[in-house]
Automatic annotation (TrEMBL):
One of its GO terms (molecular function) is lyase activity. It comes from the Bacteria. InterPro entries: EvaA-like, EvaA-like_sf. Residues 37-240, 255-458 form the dTDP-4-dehydro-6-deoxy-alpha-D-glucopyranose 2,3-dehydratase domain. This is NDP-hexose 2,3-dehydratase family protein.
């Protein structure tokens, strides 16, 4: 009888991946087939190749959508995709402790995935020129695959999602990262997507579709310095790449930071209850929109979409439209020679687990103007009035264009000192190195999507602190 063959063991991590990512981050000017300076013209060419159109339509006239009898929830006739419902929120602390609002409920988990492949010894990443109806400039660079389960299971009866086979099924590519991450907790109810980085082998032939291009991590870093070019879904996946740079020392050990965050997560009492949309107080539904009479926060609007290169070339849908531009900033300082970011353990209405680590400032200033200064978010005025010589990074980035219309935030890294940000910060805030936050992105529901955008700028080399 033949003895059983002993299983071979693998390394627990790709030992050379950090070095390969660092080489890719250093390649900023050109990649395998496209110079960074030519990306604008390539995107313009893709825009010319297809018909794109977004028109507003009254919510009551959206094809396939209706307000459900009894609840007033805005739902799709298939019961798939997503719905707009109501949420009642009660908090144990804060200047505003109770409110009601519309919220997007999308329980299915989608895939946000970037495919990597090595060309001439340098890792490249397959990026898509993707139209989203909420993008102000229509086309932005997105992950290789950006699809809900309804999309990739063709509930819409459209064409298949390109390159999906590298991320799903038995024959998928080598996995470097695969983690469930939350999305905007203020507008989504407990929504999560798989954030994936996979690599095709050296002998794999990956056919290149016209709407896709290979870029290095360094090229993506250069493009992250530009407004509205690299979309939110690409940014969150980049933030989940295995860290390129790590520092040995930090103000708090990893265990101490974890303990602080666990205390923050435990001490908040948060009651979030779904309620019918037609029972949400402080909001009104007209023929065209759902909105607040005071015009704050956001409104729910409808659009008709035409997109020649999508799996379905035309559809109607609701979108959330914010009423102003957000400000999202990490204040940072060097402590013991190492850059540290001031993180906020932030409660958001739709989070699965109470709080996540957020940037120091994450707010729409217009939503707080009616409140006294003591009730405004800490450090907001500092971020708004930062001297130009202290701003190390600034760019306008779009939020999720598939669900939000013209939703933009000004993302910032601002250098501070002890007089502005003491070593012993206020309750709910703590110092962490970029490496510590980067390590936490390997786990779901620790680092929120806005913080991941700013981490992606560090990982891709768009900013040096």
């Amino acid at each position: 009888m033949t003895a059983p063959v002993a299983p071979s063991l693998r390394s627990r991590a790709a030992e050379d991946l950090a070095a390969r990512l660092a080489r890719s981050a250093a390649a900023t000017g050109a990649g395998h087939a496209l110079r960074t300076a030519d990306v604008d013209e390539w995107l313009a060419g893709r825009a010319r190749a297809h018909r794109f159109r977004v028109e507003r339509r009254p919510l009551g006239a959206l094809d396939g959508w209706s307000f459900a009898e009894g609840t007033g929830n805005l739902v799709h006739h298939t019961g798939k995709f997503f719905s707009v419902e109501g949420l009642h929120v009660t908090l144990s602390e804060g200047s505003v402790r109770s409110w009601q609002q519309p919220i997007i409920r999308q329980p299915e988990v989608g895939i946000l995935g970037i495919l990597a492949k090595e060309f001439d010894g340098v890792l490249h990443f397959l990026m898509q020129a993707k139209m989203e109806p909420g993008n102000r400039n229509v086309l932005q660079l997105s992950p290789t695959v950006q699809a809900t389960r309804s999309n990739y299971s063709t509930v819409h009866r459209g064409s298949r999602v390109k390159y999906l086979e590298y991320f799903a099924g038995a024959d998928r590519a080598l996995v470097h990262a695969d983690v469930l991450q939350s999305e905007h907790g203020s507008w989504f109810y407990r929504k999560a997507n798989r954030n994936m980085l996979v690599e095709a082998g050296p002998d794999a032939e990956v056919p290149l579709d016209d709407d896709f291009c290979w870029l290095t991590l360094g090229q993506l870093g250069e493009l992250l310095r530009r407004d509205n070019l690299v979309n939110m879904d690409a940014r969150t996946v980049i933030a989940c790449f295995p860290p390129v740079h790590t520092s040995e020392g930090a103000l708090l050990s990893d265990a101490e930071l974890q303990s602080w965050f666990t205390v923050e997560r435990s001490r908040h009492d948060v009651d979030m209850r779904r309620i019918p949309l037609n029972q949400v107080e402080g909001w009104q539904r007209g023929d065209d929109v759902v909105e607040r009479p005071d015009g704050r926060y956001f409104r729910v609007v409808g659009v008709r979409v035409e997109a020649g290169n999508r799996e379905v070339t035309g559809w109607d849908q609701p979108l959330f439209e914010p009423t102003g531009t957000g400000v999202t900033a990490f204040l940072y300082r060097r402590i013991g020679g190492a850059p540290h970011l001031l993180v906020n353990a932030k409660v958001e209405a739709g989070f699965l687990d109470t709080v996540e680590l957020a940037p120091t400032v994450q707010a729409n200033p217009g939503n707080w103007e009616h409140l006294p200064p003591a009730d405004r978010p800490p450090f907001l005025d500092l971020a708004l009035d930062a001297p130009a010589d202290r701003v190390r990074y600034a760019a306008i980035h779009s939020e999720e264009g598939g669900r939000f219309l013209n939703a933009e935030s000004r993302y910032l890294f601002i250098e501070t000192d002890d007089s502005e940000t003491p070593l012993d910060p206020p309750a709910g805030y703590q110092w962490a190195t970029p490496g510590q936050l980067g390590a936490l992105t390997a786990h779901g529901h620790y680092v929120n999507v806005q913080a991941r955008t700013l981490l992606s700028c560090i990982d891709a080399g768009a900013v040096e602190l």
